[in-house]
Amino acid sequence: MGAGPLRRDALRSQLWPLPTLGVLLAVAAGVGLPRLDMRILRHIPPSLTAYLFGGGPAAARTVLEAIAGSLISVTALTFSLTVVTLQLASSQFSPRLLRTFNQDRYVQTTLALFLATFTYALTVLRTVRTEASGQPPFVPQLSVTLAFVLTLASVFALVIFLSHLARKIRVETMLRDVHIDADATLRRLLPETGPATTGGTTAPGPPADALPLLVETSGFLAAVDEKALLAAAVAADAVVLIDRCPGSSLIAGTPAGVAWSRSGAPLAPDTRRLLVEQTARALGTASERIPEQDISFGLRQLTDVATKALSPGINDPTTAIHALSHSSALLCELARRDLSPRLLRDDRGQVRVVLRRPTLAELLHLAVAQPMQYGAADPAVLARLSMLLRELAWHSRPEQRPTIADHLARLRATTAAQEFHPGDRTHLADLADSVDEALNRRWTADAP
């Protein structure tokens, strides 16, 4: 995957592509349908003509002018509401949630319908001829009727759009959308943990004199072209290790990985130069993180919402607790999947490319560290963090549990440093003990 995911994401996350397509189709329809009117209108049966626009040229021009004027006003209103929603989502929740609104197909379709109706009405208006024009009067009845139908559709779309927008800006809806997108990403990229995956080949380690693979462009690692990396490694008879995960910040001139000869012999100078260039081209960077290959992006968004809700200006711990609930569900799903490095092999089954994935320890730290720091004074937030660790303990494997125990120790230390009511302190202590019980019970259940 290389530039393709970046282009697809750029199109999905922009508001203009679908409205632009709607305007182009409207222009084509506004030019073509009046010509069709001239050819077939006289052949339409009277039983159908009765349902078409029956006014004269002056009435047709009035109707089309009213449609064009009203639709451009409605379009401006829709754009204004969308901008206000984006501002609310950015300031109240997280700037990284703007992608969710920009990718909303209903918003894009509504804007496309309004602009298409406006453009179509203007295009048809130029074909209406009155007697004052010095030409035979002409009223494109089919075209004007279609403009009327599009206007009715726009009215219904406006009502539904307002309802959709009111539902979309609810924090529960935004958290659900982030959760769905993140779950789809990890299910697409991570295999289920099982005998076939847990017993795989260990990723090879680089030698001390491995070749650094420098990055050409600064930005976030957005996509890795696996085919290009594998082809470059095979051509150089080398092994390539990319130790930066999608979503990592890359700086031009710094290494994103290393490579070394599979045979152990030094790589030739031309081979080294070509391998560095091909690897740099295979690592697609962007100015922002995208979820195409970024497993941790959903957790980053949820954590942003939680920390924003815990800020003094917002002070909404309930939203933070909801966000932590979604983070817990994602972490439990991640714990059941294979987070070991992805290995790409050549035709002979030899490992040629090693792509690092985020570990459960890194993902758990991402989801827990900041809410624990900013919500340290709120017993409800600390209680939800304890439940998150307990829920994760029930889905973890033995090698993952020391990480959970480490975060539990941090949580206990954070609780001990606060001046809570004795009742709250006892409740938090009981929850922490329940995490220990879950870890120990799973240890016992896994024992032979």
Automatic annotation (TrEMBL):
<feature type="transmembrane region" description="Helical">
    <location>
        <begin position="145"/>
        <end position="166"/>
    </location>
</feature>
<feature type="transmembrane region" description="Helical">
    <location>
        <begin position="66"/>
        <end position="86"/>
    </location>
</feature>
<keyword id="KW-0472">Membrane</keyword>
<feature type="transmembrane region" description="Helical">
    <location>
        <begin position="15"/>
        <end position="33"/>
    </location>
</feature>
<protein>
    <recommendedName>
        <fullName>DUF2254 domain-containing protein</fullName>
    </recommendedName>
</protein>
<feature type="transmembrane region" description="Helical">
    <location>
        <begin position="106"/>
        <end position="125"/>
    </location>
</feature>
<dbReference type="Pfam" id="PF10011">
    <property type="entry name" value="DUF2254"/>
</dbReference>
<keyword id="KW-0812">Transmembrane</keyword>
<keyword id="KW-1133">Transmembrane helix</keyword>
<dbReference type="InterPro" id="IPR018723">
    <property type="entry name" value="DUF2254_membrane"/>
</dbReference>
